[in-house]
Amino acid sequence: FSLCSIDWGMVVFDEAQNIKNPNAIQTRAAKGLNSDFKLLVTGTPVENSLADFWCLMDTAVPGHLYSYQDFRKKYIKPILEANKPILDIVNSNAKSVQLDIGLMLRKDVGHLMLRRTKEDVFSQDASQSKYGEGKALPQKIVYVGLLDDASEDSTYKYRQSLSSTMHDFQLATYEAVINEYRKAEHNQALACLHNLRDISLHPQLGNQGTLIGRKKTINDLKKTIGQSRKLTSLIVQLDSIKKLNEKCIVFCINKRLQEFLSLALTSIYSVPVHVINGDTKAVAKKQSSETRKSIISAFEAHEGFNIIIMSPIAAGVGLTITGANHVIHLERHWNPAKE
Predict the structure, then answer these.
(1) What is the C-alpha to C-alpha distance for residues 306 and 287, in angstroms, rounded to an integer?
(2) Which of 164, 188, 185 is nearest to 177 (CA)?
């Protein structure tokens, strides 16, 4: 708050989504800064609800979108009302209401918001790039288990190439954890869920286990991967991406699995597979030290097929990668806003 005593000419907030909560101390401090001009930069202006956007705009131009109560009445409440089912039937007008409200909000914000997508910078055709950088944006492919065209009876449909079911040792380990939880005298639901999530990645990760041990041959690594249906599906997808000679980002949270995949995929595909997580330095203290930026630069500079492993938490803020057009979410975070 000491910075609030200074009259600034300009204040720039990078990663401005960090001040989306009007009740947070850092948001109050940001709003308290005196300046002639405020600029907010973010790739995710709305993480949870339109209330996030109101808070950002109220920091940049106080009062332009009214008080929060008036903003909620004009923009948020109509969307919430439209999303309410009528006699347990989804309101067919909900989508139309969302689009109308979105258009109204965009007009009210007007020139105060500039939005630029990657497609604006990198066209599909390098010769047509707006910014004359001679770079083409490759077609992005995100591998998602659930298909969008689920049937009207809400029966989930899975993408066949990603569909797999646990069996043998993995299934036995998974069911053992559930049986142990049922017999437990104390409520250990959260610990059980964490354990089940680890086992769904690989059975040896259960109970804080590790996949890194003695030096393993490629055959040993493939056998270890074969114990997990999810990792087996990952290899199938990476094999198909390799045939296309394109690059892939694998998002994974579990650091023990990140370490194993870096070793295993480097050995199997003969490419340097690096990891960017919370331990990766943003700034190098030594000239030889690897940083997030240097790892990404090396990844994008590598011709043809390549893989990089990233934590969606650590790498989801402040990093831009345009060289990869395949994204695999091997593991999802509990909170989608973290991604």
Answers:
(1) 25
(2) 188
Strands, E, within the chain: which ranges? 7-14, 34-41, 141-143, 247-251, 274-276, 306-310, 326-329
With CA atoms as reference, report the closest residue to 40 among 96, 112, 129.
Answer: 112
Q: Could you say which of 76, 99, 115 is where a domain stops?
A: 115
- CB burial of residue 117 (10 Å; 0-12, 13-18, 19+): exposed
Q: Is residue 19 part of a domain?
A: yes
> Do residues 284 and 291 lie in contact, with contact meaning Cβ atoms separated by under 8 Å?
yes
Residues in the chain: 339
Which of these three, 72, 89, 115, is where a domain ends? 115
**Helical axes 189-201 vs 229-244, angle rounded to 10°:** 40
Range of the domain at 259: 168-338
Do 232 and 100 lie in one domain? The reply is no
Number of domains composing the chain: 2
* Helices assigned H by DSSP within 39-93: 50-60, 68-71, 77-83
Asked if residue 161 is part of any domain, the answer here is no
Domain presence at residue 310: yes
pLDDT tens for each residue of 32-90: 999 999 999 998 888 888 999 999 999 999 999 999 999 999 999 999 888 887 655 55
Please indicate, yes or no, if residue 286 is contained in any of the structural domains.
Answer: yes
Q: Full-prediction pTM beyond 0.85?
A: no
CATH number at residue 7: 3.40.50.10810
